[in-house]
Design goal:
Elements: H1 6-11, E1 21-23, E2 32-35, E3 38-42, H2 55-68, H3 76-80, H4 83-96, E4 100-104, H5 107-118, E5 124-128, H6 133-142, E6 145-149, H7 154-161, E7 170-175, H8 187-196, E8 200-204, H9 219-223, E9 232-236, E10 246-250, H10 252-261, H11 263-266, H12 273-288, H13 291-309, E11 321-327, H14 329-341, E12 344-345, E13 348-349, E14 359-364, H15 371-387
Parallel strand pairs: 3-12, 5-6, 5-7, 7-8, 8-9
Antiparallel strand pairs: 1-2, 2-3, 4-10, 9-10, 11-14, 13-14
Helix pairs in contact: 2-12, 4-12, 5-6, 7-8, 13-15, 14-15
Amino acid sequence: MERLDLTALDARHLRRRRRVVEATPDLEQPMRVRVDGRELLNFCSNDYLGLRSHPELIRAAGECMRQHGFGAGASHLVTGHSFEHQALEQELAAFTGRERALLFSSGYMANLGVVSALSTRHDLIVADRLNHASLLDAARLAGARLRRYPHLQAAGAAQALALASDRDAAMLVTDGVFSMDGDIAPVSDLAALAAQYDATFMVDDAHGLGVLGASGGGTLEQAGLDARAVPVLVGTLGKALGSFGAFVAGDEALIEWLIQRARTYVYTTALPPAIAAATRAALKLVKDEPWRRERLQALVTRFRAGAAAHGLPLSASLTPIQPVIVGDPGRALALSESLNAQGFWVSAIRPPTVPQGSARLRVTLSAAHEEAQVDALIAALASAFEREALPV
């Protein structure tokens, strides 16, 4: 059993602490939140399109609760699968260009369910070294052989896939947009490798869906990849869609197999129907309001230009996730606290969430931010670096 040494975590500046969000004072400005008694501008949320407090989501959820109550009452395979769940699955399948979709309670549960249902201890799982923790845990849960290749390096994936024997199956799994770095997987190259080695290709596009692509179809739409190239697609509902939960999309056989074998689907209570109803409203807004993606990309461009003008150390990300790499966990915490004092909420991300030596501020942008707020954040960041005597 691991020793419960919280003092050691404190000494290394690695202890995580929760902060209490008391309210969003004005639902029309969802990036303004009251935290621990202070009003802050939120620049660390995954609400990329500003939908979590949209009136249409609130209306849809309220109407559904009046008809169905709140909780689902049971798992999908008992009595918990409502009309709203069924309708959302059909709409997600159509949105992603796949035959069917299956709802899960979270992205973590979706990844665990899919990988463990499709793999055995005889199989090989090839994964990007910086994949989300749920994908790595899923491989371990399945008991399969796990080979991790250097981040974004398709050549490394090819070397790992070559280790699969003719009698064993292989899976190639990657994030679409990486949650802590904001960079995008070389999905076209990886899809070609999966076809070459007859491997099942799975993409977790939690941070790409709704954000990338002309219609918000995500990393795969942006790359022009269809269901044949990427047969297993995982997406979450709690980021750009502003809701909660996750889904897996694929062909008929895949979804039917998951219904039978994905333990994180079979043995858990279904999402409340009201959440499914709100997500349906969000999905319609993603399709009907492309201006949200356009505005978001304009704010990303503005932030990067302003940060570059101040010499701030940004990573090479063109997505709403804009990490400011610091390196030392203590310095990352000091910068976060300095921003907090100036009225901005930007989290310090430290190991083990990110590799040793790459502690950072994880700035995230939303279509709900204003240009003046982005400019103010840039000025505050520059001031924080100067105040902490850090090089820019």
